[in-house]
Amino acid sequence: MTMPLIFERSEAGRRAYSLPDCDVPRKDATELLPGWALRKRAADLPEVSEVDLVRHYTKLSQRNHGVDVGFYPLGSCTMKYNPKVNEDAAALPGFNALHPYQPEELVQGALELMYELGRYLCEIGGMDEATLQPAAGAHGELTGLMIIKAYHESRGDGAKRTKVIVPDSAHGTNPASAAFCGYKVVEVKSDGRGGVDLDSLRAAMSDEVAALMLTNPNTLGLFDENIVEIAKIVHGAGGLLYYDGANMNAIMGIARPGDMGFDVLHFNLHKTFSTPHGGGGPGSGPVAVKKTLAPFLPVPVVEKKDGKFVLDYARPQSIGKVKAFYGNFNVMVKAYAYIRALGAKGLREASENAVLNANYLMRKLAPYYHLPYDRHCKHEFVLSGEYQLASGVHTGDIAKMLLDYGFHAPTVYFPLIVKEAIMVEPTETESRDTLDAFVDAMIGIAQLAEKDPEALHTAPHKMVVGRLDDVTAARRPVLRWRPNKQTNAG
Amino acid sequence: MYPENVKYSEKHEWVRVEGKIATVGITSFAQEQLGAIVGVGLPEEGSKVEKHGALADLDSMKTADQVFAPVGGKIVKVNRALEQHPEFMNDDPYGDGWVAVIEMADPGELDGLMSAAEYEAFVAEEASKG
Asked: What angle do CA B83, B87, B91 make, to 5 degrees?
């Protein structure tokens, strides 16, 4: 069942707003704006009544899937439930009604929260100092790499160190961030157990390498037991270690990247620390560093001086600002509320349950789906749709079929080193009932793949739309509504 | 199953050589692994590329990847048609799906490349590793 676009509901003269009478002298737009800033043609905005507008967007929202609607096992995305009490905290007027230009002495509470959150993150990550500015994970990666670059440059080593190493299991953002920062990306292979192949790493290491970027546990959900040796190899050649915090939900209160030998790490508050994710978030990607890198952090850094909280701009080696003002402040409030609500013990329990849930699912599904790396996993695991491929069923078909069961699909076709990959991350917030329902769905799909593969090729069947032609949508996207064009309809 | 008149790289590119001119594309195996290719980012004509250097960016429904230059030299021509028709790389990888023409700086770089039979064996071994 298709729905008309808001533009197609338009009837001339309908209005969804009523403005009060204008109490200042009216002026024509042409008197106020230069010619180049004025439209030549009306914008063709839809004209609808308020009730039509509300119904349209309410219906659209009802077609969404989110963590508040159902299970969302999207691997490496940590789609955990976001406690609503976080929203209460962020809505407090003392936080919500702040203006970023308010003087420091009037926003001591907000600065204290930022300072404390930075301290908590450093404690969790085993680091010394943090910035809360980056707006998301990849932004944190770029910030971290800029800090690394500034560090090497400060030692007169910047021109020589032109490469960043990433393993072949890395999140796609790692090589992208390194390339964006001007580095040449060198890929190293994974070994048979899914960790970094040490010989490959040794061969790739040289005095031209600025850093190794690593996720641990990695995108296979496996903890790299060689991490201390890896750190030794990288540090031995003068390189630094960057920790991609996307998988931090596996290790809170159990292991710390700083103790493993990492020099820089970013957190995803919108993953690990239960702030809203997807739909624009907004995200937040704080970066924490060891002492030696602290001089390069973006300014301002929130500092505590003589019992007062101040914004410290006096860091001459800083890479500068990476975002307007101080970062996504309300997201920080939610993460702070979450950390305080759980406490050290609660955070550790969250990670323990995330790991337990993942292992439970992995063992329940292993008889039905190929498990290429058969080890205890951490917070997520990767299956392969290889058994199903024998009957012509692809991972994409399995993912589409899951929608009919009311579940969001897992991450598919990633990591790239697993054929027909299905990457499942249940998170700690799901009950055993939910996990069992997901297991039943996955077993049902595996059985269907043998009996009736065609049913999977055409899935989903119960959604408002069936199998969409996503290839044509990607190759020939229709990105906006155009009046008088038939292609918009239906 | 792989055309005999071209040479193959370990990164799954093919090269067709006429004198110093090398036409480059990706193999049928590569396009199958990538799935439907939906976007192609091409280099500037006239720019230089080193052997193993990035020649083009690919977006597919499964992943983002790069085409690497199996030989170095000057890029004398790129297949602009791919910008509108990335599907050529899936439908006709050895024909309309060609990526670029390189004027080789050192034809000796062809030495390490594989024949069709060697490439077929190489792909079979890759596939068995999963």
From this structure: 140
